[in-house]
Amino acid sequence: MKIVLIGATGTIGKAVAKELTAHDVISVGFNQGDYQVDIEDRGSIESFFKKIGQVDAIISTSGNIAFAPVTELNYEQYKLTIDSKLMGQLNIFQIGKEYVRPGGSITLSSGVLAQNPMSGGAAVSLVNAGLDAFAKAAAFELGDTLRINTVSPHFVTETMEMMGMDSSGGISATDTAKAYIYALNSNETGQVFDVANYI
Q1: Is the distance from CB of 144 to CB of 103 less than 8 angstroms?
Q2: pTM of the model
Q3: Each residue of 94-150: pLDDT tens digit?
Q4: Beta strands 2-6 and 35-36: pairing type?
Q5: Which among 35, 95, 26 has a CA at the least distance from the CA of 59?
Q6: Could you give the count of Cα atoms lying within 13 Å of 88 in the half-sphere of its Cβ?
Q7: 3-class DSSP state for residue 80?
């Protein structure tokens, strides 16, 4: 399969790429990768897809987020999270769907905070839940012409360690990648794949 992996240079993206070595993977990052794309810039995404043409699948592991107590979150932090992780991935869907072959798939990244909130994560919960709901609604309308799902990562062990956090409750990037591979290979659509179920 010809697969576009957006966010390929991040911790989860690198792990997903390792699981896709049997496929033709187009690695996309913000500053690195085979191609560079700003997911908040629709022109950047359109230019990229015009260059590469038709694909079998798109996987997004991209999106920036802001953490802060809900009483301290400011407008700019909400906007950053919404513009990047929510609207950025919506841009990927809206533009990318025109380049996915019939029956192909788009997999977006949400996160476990949609269902399991934590202190400081209100903006992230907002965006993650929005992505999950959007995928369900979009799949309802798209039928079998295009599959769309979200993968819901937990805290990634490597990221927690990098941030100096206790990583005992985390899930490794390698294990997280398994849910993305399931989403790619399954026939399901409109689903939220919790990575904890695919280890």
Answers
A1: yes
A2: 0.96
A3: 999 999 999 999 999 999 999 999 999 999 999 999 999 999 999 999 999 999 999
A4: unpaired
A5: 26
A6: 25
A7: helix
